[in-house]
Design a protein that fits this description.
The protein has 449 residues and is mostly helical. It is built from 20 helices and no strands. The chain has one domain: Growth Hormone, Chain: A. Helix 2 packs antiparallel against helix 17, helix 6 packs antiparallel against helix 13 and helix 11 crosses helix 19. The longest helix is centred in the first third of the chain and has 45 residues. It comes from Aquitalea magnusonii.
């Protein structure tokens, strides 16, 4: 009887790990995304002098948004180090607590009118803590799901962790949408704080679920066999340096989401006449589309030739993202909604697949550090800078053409870097369980040919 009970628990373990990864990342990304929405809508008014030009104040609020992205590689390094040495579970509990405390702090932070320059300084510091938390969260969540997955289903189970991003974004946008009917003075004074304060309740739920987790078998075996790396980051850079830099470019296209949910929200409501409520409805529709279609990216990459699957997924993005900006510029609510929903499909499906692909690229004893460091470097260089660059181009040119052009370039970078990455991992789904690690890549010189 005990043996049967153990077998039943082992069968349930993959799904428990997947659900825990999904719930935890949903909460983490909710916290991260509400900052972007608040930066687009109110932070320029709340945390900077009223004498500033509105466009400059918005630009500065986007710069504080970038501070979180700058901190993300640091989070990847810190928690990747401990995740590869002591295990995935402990780091995931710590990152969730950090995110919850920093988000609550932002919700309680006094305005510029109350404490002057200390307000934006405090905002940046709390945003940095958010960045460190989410920088350590992503890799661990993907691994706790994929390393506990049944045989040949690592990419599919990694997609559970990836679903936390649209779910968290959807929840964040929904909360702001429900508050959008508030009178603007009340919203600026105190209404925007509600989503941040709600985070405390969500974090308690996430902590309860994550504390029930057990460590992945792959990591347990590494610890038992004393194969733990003393300095995982140093080993990753020495042994897999070129892989790190190319893997860094792979997620580039997913950061167009900040062109939609942060930059476009600010642009549409301040310059094009959309109301906060109507444009948040458009974003909500796109996020529902993302939540529904995103897992199909993992399905395509798992069941078909990976190179062909990536081409099918990414090529439409070259047309659809520029088309989205043109549609928004028309001022038509329905045209903007349809275009944004269509533009969401390619990069969402791509996001659903890349977690498992990046996990396969690194050996288990360096996996947390390797994939986290690569992914968060991309967030630093591209993710946080995306709304800043877009706002600067809009201020400088007065038009949207250059913003539309860079959105297509993001897809180009992801396409070529992913095709390069696929040469270094096998076409079959590598099992991420104990004792099986990604193969050592051939020399970079040969790959260049």
């Amino acid at each position: 009887m005990p043996h049967t009970h153990t077998q039943a628990d082992n069968k349930k373990k993959p799904m428990r790990a997947a659900i825990a990864a999904f719930v935890g990342t949903t909460i983490e990304w909710y916290d991260f995304y509400i900052y972007g929405l608040a930066a687009a809508l109110v932070f320029g008014k709340v945390f900077f002098p009223a004498s500033l030009d509105p466009g400059v104040a918005t630009l500065l609020s986007f710069v504080t948004l970038w501070a979180g992205f700058i901190a993300r590689p640091l989070g990847g390094i810190i928690f990747g180090h401990f995740g590869d040495r002591i295990g995935r579970k402990t780091t995931l509990v710590i990152t969730l607590m950090l995110m919850g405390l920093s988000t609550l702090g932002i919700g309680l932070l006094p305005s510029y009118q109350s404490i002057g320059v200390l307000a934006p300084i405090g905002l940046v510091l709390l945003r940095i803590v958010q960045g460190i938390a989410v920088g350590g969260e992503w890799g661990g969540a993907v691994l706790i799901a994929s390393e506990n997955a049944p045989k040949n289903k690592g990419i599919l189970y990694a997609a559970f962790a990836q679903q936390g991003s649209p779910a968290g974004n959807l929840l964040a946008t929904l909360v702001f949408f429900l508050l959008s009917s508030m009178p603007l003075p009340d919203f600026v004074l105190w209404g925007w704080r509600i989503p941040f304060l709600l985070s405390a309740l969500l974090v308690l739920v996430g902590l309860f679920i994550r504390l029930q987790l057990s460590e992945s078998a792959a990591m347990q075996q590494v610890i038992a066999e004393k194969k733990v790396e003393r300095l995982p980051l140093l080993s990753v850079i020495r042994q897999h340096g070129m892989l790190v830099w190319m893997a860094m470019l792979v997620p580039t296209v997913i950061h167009v989401t900040y062109l939609k949910t942060t930059f476009a929200l600010s642009w549409a409501t301040s310059a094009l006449g959309y109301s906060r409520e109507s444009f948040l409805q458009i974003i909500l529709a796109a996020l529902v589309v993302q939540f529904v279609v995103q897992p199909f990216g993992a399905v395509l990459v798992s069941r078909f030739d990976k190179v062909k699957a990536i081409l099918w997924i990414l090529l439409p993005e070259f047309l659809l993202m520029p088309l989205m900006f043109w549609a928004i510029a028309t001022g038509s609510y329905w045209l903007a909604m349809v275009a944004m929903c269509l533009a969401t499909i390619p990069h969402s499906m791509f996001y659903g697949a890349i977690g498992g692909l990046l996990a396969q690229a690194f050996p288990v004893q360096l996996r947390y550090t390797g994939m986290s460091f690569s992914y968060q470097l991309c967030s630093l260089l591209i993710g946080g800078g995306t709304p800043v660059l877009a706002q600067w181009l809009l201020n400088a040119t007065g038009g949207i053409s250059w913003v539309a052009a860079i959105s297509a370039c993001y897809a180009l970078v992801s396409l070529f870097s992913t095709l390069w990455l696929l040469k270094r991992i096998p076409q079959q789904d590598v099992q991420l369980a104990a004792g099986q690690v990604a193969p050592t890549a051939p020399p970079v010189v040969r790959q260049a040919h």
